[in-house]
Amino acid sequence: MADISTLTNVSSGAVKAAEKRTSRVSNPVGKAEDDRNTFSRILATTIDNINTTNAYLSDAENAEIEWALGKSKNTHDLTIAMSKASTALQYTVAVRDRVLTAYNQLMQMQF
């Protein structure tokens, strides 16, 4: 299908919008409509989440050491840091388990 703007030498947004509305294929194969769900984007988000989990675990460990050494007497901050670390670790483990389950299901498929 030819592009309408090349046929009429018009490069207005209205012509391109009309072509998009009348075209049967709005997203041809090989062209991502948006970058939200690409594998590299998901991988980068996963790596960021793992780094955040590691940071929470490190903060909790530091808060625990400071409290044990007597540098901090505020148990409330210690409890919050440990809760954040625990929740983040549980979430990370749950995601890992789901990924492994999906991988195992893919490996069991017969083609």
Automatic annotation (TrEMBL):
It is found in: Bacterial flagellum basal body. Keywords: Bacterial flagellum, Cell projection, Cilium, Flagellum. Signal peptide: none annotated. Residues 1-32 are annotated as: Disordered. It comes from the Bacteria. Its main location: other. One of its GO terms (molecular function) is cytoskeletal motor activity. It holds the Pfam family FliE. Coiled coil: none annotated. One of its GO terms (biological process) is bacterial-type flagellum-dependent cell motility. Residues 1-12 have a biased composition (Polar residues). GO terms for cellular component: bacterial-type flagellum basal body. PANTHER family: FLAGELLAR HOOK-BASAL BODY COMPLEX PROTEIN FLIE (PTHR34653:SF1), PTHR34653. Belongs to the FliE family. This is Flagellar hook-basal body complex protein FliE. It comes from Butyrivibrio fibrisolvens. The gene is fliE.
